[in-house]
Every structure is written in C-alpha cells, then in structure tokens.
Amino acid sequence: xxFKKMLRDLKHNKSQFITIFLMVFLAVFAFSGIxxxxxxxxxxxxxxxxxQNLQDLWVTKENFxxxxxxxxxxxxxxxxxxxxxxxxxxxxNPEDYTNKTTGKELKEFVIECNFIESNDINQxxxxxxxxxxxxxxxxxxxxYLAENLGxxxxxxxxxxxxxxxLKEKVVAIVEAPDHVYFMKDxxxxxxxxxxxxxxxxxxxxxxxxxxxxxxxxxxxxDLSQLKEVKASIKENIDNVIxxxxxxxxxxxxxxxxxxxxxxxYSGIFSGLFVFIAILSVVTTMNRxxxxxxxQIGTLKALGIKKRKITWMYVNxxxxxxxxxxxLGLFIGRYTLGSFFLNMELVYYEIPYLHTYLIPLVYEVxxxxxxxxxxxxxxxxxxxxxxxxAEAIRVEIPKVxxxxxxxxxxxxxKRASLSTKWNLRxxxxxxxxxxxxxxxxxxxxxxxxxxxxxxxxxxEYMRWEFEVINHFDYRLNLSENYTDSQYEAIIEKYGEKTxxxxxxxxxxxxxxxxxxxxxxxxxxxxxxxxxxKKPFEMKNDGIYITEKMSKxxxxxxxxxxxWRIVATDKWYKSKIAGLAKDPQNQQFxxxxxxxxxxxxxTYRPDSIYTNKDLSKIKEINGVNTIQSIGNIRSEMDNMLxxxxxxxxxxxxxxxxxxxxxxxxxxILSFTEKEYQxxxxxxxxxxxxxxxxxxxxxxxxxxxxxxxxxxxxxxWVTDYIFANAIGDIYDFNAYIRPITYAISGLGSFIVSYLxxxxxxxxxxKIDMVSSLKGNE
Amino acid sequence: xxxxxxxxxxxKVYKIGENEFKALDNIDLELNKGEMIVVxxxxxxxxxxxxxxxxxxxxxxxxxxxxxxENISSYNENKLSSYRAENVGFIFxxxxxxxxxxxxxxxxxxxDIVKNPIPTEEALKSVGLEEHKNKFPNxxxxxxxxxxxxxxxxxxxxxxxxxxxxxGALDSHTGVDVLKLLxxxxxxxxxxxxxxxxxxxxxxxxxxxxxxxxxxxxIESVVKNPNPKKxxxxxx
Lengths: 774, 236
Ligand SMILES: Nc1ncnc2c1ncn2[C@@H]1O[C@H](COP(=O)(O)OP(=O)(O)OP(=O)(O)O)[C@@H](O)[C@H]1O
Ligand SMILES: [Mg+2]
What we know:
heterodimer, A: alpha+beta, 4 domains, 6-stranded mixed beta barrel, 6-stranded mixed β-barrel, 21 strands, elongated, B: alpha/beta, Rossmann fold, 6-stranded mixed sheet, 4-stranded antiparallel sheet, binds adenosine-5'-triphosphate, binds magnesium ion
C-alpha cells in the first residue's frame, strides 16, 4: 500500500522531483566532469613520468666525459644518469612535406635531434615500431609531428646540421616524457606540432668527432635529497654550468601549470554548484515532508510503524539523489571530462592521459546523498514525534507575531495588501526565502564571475599589449651585433631601445635572482602605475613592481644592494617608485640612471618600432623580429582553452539557476495554492492573483541579483589575486555592462519562469484545493 | 416572490477512471430572494456540490444555473470571478482566512474586488471584532476567526451568502452567535439578501424560511417554514 502511495506521490509531485533530480545531477555532473579533467591531467602525467622514468635533474656542461658520467652514477642517492647531445637539424627538403590540416607545403622544417647512448631514463613511449636500441640506426620520431605531416614508419628523412647530412629511416613513432610541452623557441607561446618536432637517435649515427655531450640527465633515488644531490654534482664534476630540476623545466612545469591553472576557479565554481544544489534540494525535501504532515500523522494514527513511514519518505530523497548522483558522476566524467582532456591533448603530447576521479569526487557525491537523505529523515522524525492527534490537525503556522511588527508600522503601514501579504509570507518562510536568495544569488554570481573573468583577461590583454607594449614590432638584437649594424638599424627603425640583464639582489641575508630592464624606449615600452596608466621613470633610482614590493617587503625609499649576474660589482640603489606589471615582477630603471652607476655600459638588446615589418624576414644584426600582434593572437589562442571552460561554467550556472528558480517557483506555488484558492473564491481575478504570486519571486530575484554583484567582484578578484602564480599581478576588472547583462539575464529568466508557473493559477480548482487542505 | 436562484435540470457528474458518479442528478430548484434557506442531508448527498454550483465555484455538467435572471453556467472563468466578487459571500467550516493578514486586512481585501464595499470598520463592528482588528488570525479563537470570515463576506454586501457548515467547528454557544450574524445579514438590505446554510444540524432548520433535503444527489423535499423560530427560542 505504501509503495502505491509512493508512486502516486512521485507522479503528483513530478515537477518537484524532476527539479530535485536535475539539481543534484547538474552539480555532480559539473563537479565530476571538471575534476575528472583536472585530476586526469595531474595523475595521468604523474603516472606517465613515473612509468617512463622522467629525469629528476638536468645538468649542463660543455662536454660530459665518460668519467663524469661514471662519477655522477656513483654519487649518493643517484640511481642512474645518461648523457645526451641535442641539436636542431634542418630537414633538407621541407617542401616535400605538407601540413595535413592546412594543406600547405612546409617552408622550413626543423627537428630537434636527441642523440643518446641508452634509454633507461626518460624512456620513450613507443606508439608504433621498435624499442630504442643504441645499436640500431633510425629515427624514434615525434608522434604528433608524424601525425600532422603524415610521416610513417619506413619513411626516410634527410637531415642537415652544420655541413653534416644524415639520411635516417623512421623506425618508431614515440612520445617522450620530457617533451610533453614542447615548442619551437622562446618566442613561441604554444605548441603547434606542424613544422617542428623531436626525434631520438643512437649516438652511433654520428661520426666520432661529433660525440659531444653537453647534457646529462639524472635519476635521483630519494627526492628529499634533491638539494644535496644537486650540490654534490656541482662539487664533484668540474665546470658544470647548471643543475636544474623538474620545476625549471619548460615541459614539466608548463604542463603542470596548465593542469593547475584551472584548479582554483573551477574549484570555486564546482564547489558552489554543489553547495547551491544541496541547499536547494535539502530545503525542498524539508518542505515536502512538512507538507505531508497530515498524511504522516494519519498513517501513524492508522498504526503503521514509524520506521516504515520514515523509510518511505527517506526513500524519495535517497533514490532520487542516488540515481542523479551516479548518472552525474559518470556522464560528467565521460562527456565533460573527456571533452576537455581531448582538447588539451591537441597541445600536450602525452600518452594514456585519461579522466580520473579522485576519491574526493565520490565522497562529495556520497555526501550529497547522505545530506539529502539525512535531512529528509530528520524532518520526518520531527513530525513523527508529535502526537498523532496533533499531526492530523492542520498546522497553525507558528510564528511570533512580533516578527511581523515591521510590516504594520512606518512605510509598510501604507503598503498595498498584496505587498504586506508577500512581505509576511517571506518572513514566515524564511528558510525557503533564504534558499531562494542564495540559489539565485549564487547562480547570478557565477555568471558574473565567469563573464568577469573574460573582462579581466581582456583588460589584461589591453594593458599588456596596448599600454605596456605600445609598439608594433620588437627586434631582438643578436648577441654580437656590430656598431655599424646597430647604426644601420636605428637609422631605419629609430632608437627606442632597452636592455635586460639578470641581477642578484640582497634581501634579508639571502641573495635572490631577478631581472632588470633598462628602458630607453620612451613611449613604446612603457611602465605603468597602479592605475595601469603609463608614467615616466625619473633618473634617481630603480623601480620595482608593486607585487614584488609586497612579496619581498621592499618599500619606496629603501635601498637595495644588487649586482649584475656573473659580475662582482655591487651597487646600492634607492627604490624610486613602484610600477605595476601584470606578468613580470622585476626591476626597472632608465638608461640615464643606469649610466650614472660605475662600470656599466648600456648595450641595447632590443629595439622597438611601429614601422611595418610584416614583409621583412631578416635584418642584419637582428636575431628575431617579434610582432606584438602575433604574440597577442598566440596569447589569445592559448586563452581559448580557458575560455572554453569558462563558457561551460556559464552554461552550467545558467542551467542550475534555471532549475533553482523553477524549483522555488513550484515550491512557493504549492505552499500558497490554498491561499490562492481562497482569493479566487472571494472573486479575485486570475490576473490579480498572478501579480501577487510573481511579486514575491521578483523581489527575491532582484535582491539576490543586487547582492550577487559585490560578491562576484570579490570572488573574481580573489581568483586573480591569489589563485594564480606569484609572477602575475592583475585584478578583477568587471565592466558595468557585464553586471547589467548578467543581472538583466537573471531577472528575465526569473520573470519568464514565474510568468510560466503563474499559469497554474488558472488551473486551481477551488473546490478541491479548499477541500484538500482541510 | 422574486426568484434569486433557479436550477434547471442540473447535473454534476464526476468521472473516476471508467466510472461516472452523479453527485447531482437532474436537479430542479427555485429559491426565493430574501430568505434564509437551510440545506440538510446525509454526508455525500451533494450539498456542498449544490452550494458550489450556486456560488460559481464550479460549473454543472449539464443544465442551467440561473442567478437573479442570469445564466451563470454559460459564464467563462473571468465572468465567473466577477460574479463571485460582486454577488456571493462564502463562509466555510474552516474559516479560510489568510493567516498572514490582520483581521482588518482580511476584511480590507474586499476593497480589491468590489467597488462599493461596506467600510471595514462597520463590518468588523457588526461582528463585534473591532477590538481585535489588529490581531493576526492565529491570535484568535475559532469563533472569532469564523466571525472574521463573516465580516469579510458581509463587507462585500452580497446578494447571496453561502455557508458550508459554518458552525461545524464551533461549540454551540459560539455557533449561536454565528447564526445570529447570518440572520442579521439576511435581514439587512431591506430583506433583499438571501442566505443559504448547508448543515448537518437539523435544529438549524427551525430558524429557516425554507428547508431543503438532499439525498443521493437529488432534492428529496423543499419545505416552507411559515413561522421560523427566533434563534434564541431554539434549544441547542
Ligand atoms: N472531485 C470529486 N471527484 C469525484 N467525486 C466527487 C468529487 N467531489 C465530490 N464527489 C462526490 O460527490 C458526492 C457529493 O459530494 P459533496 O461534497 O457535495 O457531499 P456533501 O453532501 O457536501 O457531504 P458532506 O456533508 O460530507 O460534506 C460525494 O459522494 C463525493 O464522493
Ligand atoms: Mg459538504
């Protein structure tokens, strides 16, 4: 019998239960999808690095001898070490290759060739073909590049390097753990895998005279001893240039950064989704059980066991949340998670990356089910505790009249009856109102935050590429340009120049590494103040960025002691002012100031110009010509991935907001149906009643929207200020129009949903709804 | 005598799955203006159904409901609510007043629906609630709540006052007070107001001008009572 009742209840409260289902589903879906993707990135790469034994240390020297290698292998905590020669070889006939996506022939085709003696560290992941063997010739070839150019096993590639040519057959298609995030050069921002790639070869492919090993990769046993190993390498091997670890590696840290980049904001988003959904569902279940009060009382009076009654009601919450939770977990993981992961895989070359659900995700899903079930159980028990006779009686709303006091005084005295009625209804149903406020506020806020992130990033782009870098082209001068070359360049492109040097400075007994840019490019390379407005540096000291001032506790007027890296002369400079920079936290000064220091010579390394250089390929004495437009569009490209995630978050926020407003509407309608029926009997027109109904929800929506704005700004600012790395310094920037659009959007959605729900008022059957309640 | 209610061949049929159930079965009925009418009958007889049809809360499955010469069974939703607003006052067993409005406000809402209501103060005075006008319903006793609903109904100054078990939830003493108020409404307006009371209590029949017996969806009898008793004469 109870089962029959359950089915009937489900049918009768169909829309209510569907909205509960949707809320749980959406929250778990987003949570699972985003986590499956983020954690998939993290754990997938960890697994990869572990299985393929990515090196822990990179060591450079002019040429590592066999003895060096043996020595390193003997060091404490060193598991293994290998030597490596890395050269960039040109493919002899690039026009033989076409880019499969664009259909264009290559003009230039460079392969980074890694010559090795063994492959126990940084083991190649062989997709197709044979395992690496030092006694075999051939190319272990970059999979992504092979894919893009249609290169297959057996293809022969002719390479040239400083007069030497090599003809090699592709013997395997591979991926390499230290080439996950791999780009052409420093000026590239993201990997294209089109005219540039890597290959591994046996060192025996080169004539003996070329057997030079400037790199050594080291596998360390106990990572807690990394510092000690580093030190002992420096100590035991002569003339070591650098010893760096994974953190300094572009591939490793680049991928890690990508994996962690979204963590903060998507964490905030998916966490809020879950919070808002739980809040709404819990309130709804609680109200549902309360509404069933007389029924529960009756069942109890009939002598049905309490446990059975409780079980029946708990089942609603339990089954709906279990089904929604399980579906959310899996659909989220396999659609959303996979979708994003596959998008990342276009750039990042990493095998067996798959979505991954950490226990937290399951715990959250289980937590949602438990909370919903528990609240249903508690609400039910509370009613069952009442005496049967009491429960059967219709609940006289227990509300302290003093709560209504404000509505009988002051401005409210003259308010219309429907306003008073709504106001009191809000006060009486505080839990429902609160849930509605938080729900709508949360969703509007999420939309504002998401759009605000666009605004902020666009503002950042404007600041970086229109204000700070206020030029069209930057010429990076060759290291050993001649005076006459320099004269010729400035003659043509103007003398707006800068020089950047690495510096070391003393800060609380420690010597820290940083950079100093000496700026003599007035009007083209600009420093900006706190309000992102350009200002001219004076010649009375050095400038630091605001963020650096904060992080290193250096203030204007302080004196810093510094020197140029690899020199011995220390300078004492006063900090003359602060600059704000979105992505470089460093020192700046003018050329004039720099030249007042002893033993310094200003030798520009960059020239800035607004001349059109789009047709010019090469300039004597210039290493690379960078177009600020190109950098900007590459940057834009890189942000696309993030934008995709943000779009999706907006989508889910809107969907959730939609369901929550709908749910609230149904809830408040069901709870007021009886009163509406009374009004109808009195002779109120449907239109009048609809107005009363819509009024309340519109109020709540407006208040929620207004409250959401400051919170949204704060959250966006939090994301940018704290959640991104130390090298960044930009704040939330949300345009008024963004607030307007999000607010108006929420309002319209709420208005339309309520308008739609108000149609139910036409259908109120006076006779049965008055009968039904009493 | 002028007719206020005429039912011609009225049926109300409920469909329950495949089956049909006739709550009212081909009823013909005429009620005179200015009378106090009591409807009696066993539970499930169709009394409330009858009252709801007259009050325009429900429409008949067939037949005509003519009120003051107007056939309201052909009215659409909108016209019906105007009809209810202007002509009918309802009083229910469980008062049906709005819990979040004060006594005064509960009566005030009438101003939203009729053009010339009786002033709220007056209506409250007539039911003896002027002292309680700023209270909320849950601060009142049942009888007081029922008097609020009477004040609200009366304030509309309706031609027809329809009462479904108005004393059902009250003790006999308070019930008598309520009946007195209903009588007063019937006599107001120079005796042009009609009051119909549905009840189980056959004693109430003694004070009525007309007593109608309903059974199994049919009118069993319509009895005129030329000398209705004064309320105080009845032994409750
Ligand atoms: N919505 C409905 N659907 C089906 N049957 C209904 C419906 N409403 C009323 N009925 C049936 O119509 C009959 C008359 O109902 P009504 O409410 O008029 O009885 P009543 O005479 O007022 O009884 P009571 O004195 O118990 O209030 C009843 O038998 C009832 O079962
Ligand atoms: Mg009845």
